[in-house]
Amino acid sequence: MISFGIALLFVAASLFLMPTKARGCTCIVVGKNASATGRVLVGHNEDDPGRCVMEHHLVPPADRPVGTATSFEPCSASIDRSGRSLGYIWSQARSVPALSGADCFLNEKGVFVASDSCRRSRQDNEPDLSNGGLVYGLRISIAEKARSAREGIEIAAALIERYGYDNTGRCYIIADAEEAWLLQVIKGKHYCAKRVSDDEVAFIPNHYTIRDIAPGEEGVLMSRGFIEMCEKKGWLTVKDDCFDFARTVQDGSSVNLPGNLYRNRHALSRITGTDWSEEEDLPFSVEPRHPMDVKDVMGVLRDHYEGSPDDVRGKWDSSPHYTEVRRICTGTTLGALVIRFRDRPELNTLWTSTGRPCTSPFVPWYGGILGMPQEFLVEDNESSLKRHFHFTPKDMAYDLSIPWWEIQQFQSLLDGQFDHNRNFETVKNHVGEVEKNWLDEDDEIAEKARALMEKDEEEGLLLLTGETAKKARQSMDLVRYMTGRLPRTELSTDSKRISYKSREEEITLYIKSDARPVEDRLFFGQGMQSPESWATAIRGSLRRRDSDWEVSFRVRELTEKCVPCYSDFWLYGVDDSGSPIVGSVVIDVVEESTACNKKGSP
């Protein structure tokens, strides 16, 4: 018989392995006539809560034998992957639990795919799934097979109708140089896809956005039997022979959530130059006030609503990233992408911000690169795909040999003193200066590569590979430079290991500061977790200790939301002069109850 204690451990471990859906992403799609480039532009912020690692891969083309099939999530349908698979750039969000809906792809034919959650679709639906349905297999099938955005829609539609979609609601953005489609899916075998008008711009927060449509309308594709199903269930919202897809399928609990409306209204204001009411239904797409370029799209993805009445800051510091008002660039933003299409897929520029786009430059990655910058390599692509749904807390461990954790260190250091001494403005200026040079050079590099490719294709691709690698190194040099400029409070602890969610332990920090810390404004927690969930100082524990101040925290409160692994833990606060206290220590969080004694000693 399995003991009760062992059973509990098994359940806890299983929770870390169960796949979850990405939440909170943001996307903007610019039609080719609304774009200053004359081609489609797409921008995407990847937002996922908790402790994650973003990795980027260059996956080569492959030929697979007949009968090759893969089941991605546990208990999901096995998807046929036989035949020729296209090569692609893959942006992977590594997380515990695994994420089914977070990864983005740009393939060798110039087809881009990303997604935003639309949770939730109607809960009074009994979804029809075959063989367990699919989620992750949808995006990777598009990346591997689609030679155009329209073919990507056809591939996705066929898979959904065959297997069903095992998610509470999602919007897929599938785009190439000439057109972009939004595929909005409910749980089960039904969907609606709409082409973004060439003259307009679409913005997608985290709800359904396809509004009034008519069956058979050009640029619209719906699943078979969808309208009949809606009529049978009493869902259908009809208006002048059209129906509102978003209102029909969105669950009542998810209609007009503030976090979605904030982003949608502010994005539309930037795009159109006019204010949008909180009461009105926001449109699927709008005409921009001027043709939008790459920099305009980057600006939308970086928006914190600065200078508006919605720019309300939190109680613990001046950062906009963790507040009640959800921003476009927010605390859970793991990275951002802007795809600038050209007439040859090899010359496409995938502008990539690793980390939040407000504090990280967009690095130009070219579609024809022959190798991935070493700065972004964590694990080879084959192993990463096999392990995507089997990562463990150890994969989230703090490791400064991996540039991702250098970026996270910089972001955490800045967030605790965001507006102090104009820190953010200084960072923004440095990022803007570097990025301006890269934007100015982009067309020139693409044309130089084009000329080389006409004579020797490999020479042109080597140029693109070298430019991408050089700028990736420069981006990390900038992160290290800015990290070195920010003040850091010296912090230490005797506790090198603590027990996950221990109800007995306390941990004591030693703060080197001449001024007295304000005890009730000290917050301590794991990096990449919201400071709103961090531990507060034990009342009355602050005291002078030689040249330091010591203060204690409860381990249970400290680890309530954390991932148990070797981690960076951050202290945010202020001293009695009003100056910020920002420092970190590294602690191993273990799940064994014997890690430390009651006071947290090793």
From TrEMBL:
<keyword id="KW-0732">Signal</keyword>
<dbReference type="GO" id="GO:0016805">
    <property type="term" value="F:dipeptidase activity"/>
</dbReference>
<dbReference type="GO" id="GO:0006508">
    <property type="term" value="P:proteolysis"/>
</dbReference>
<feature type="signal peptide">
    <location>
        <begin position="1"/>
        <end position="24"/>
    </location>
</feature>
<protein>
    <submittedName>
        <fullName>Peptidase U34 dipeptidase</fullName>
    </submittedName>
</protein>
<dbReference type="InterPro" id="IPR005322">
    <property type="entry name" value="Peptidase_C69"/>
</dbReference>
<dbReference type="GO" id="GO:0070004">
    <property type="term" value="F:cysteine-type exopeptidase activity"/>
</dbReference>
<dbReference type="Pfam" id="PF03577">
    <property type="entry name" value="Peptidase_C69"/>
</dbReference>
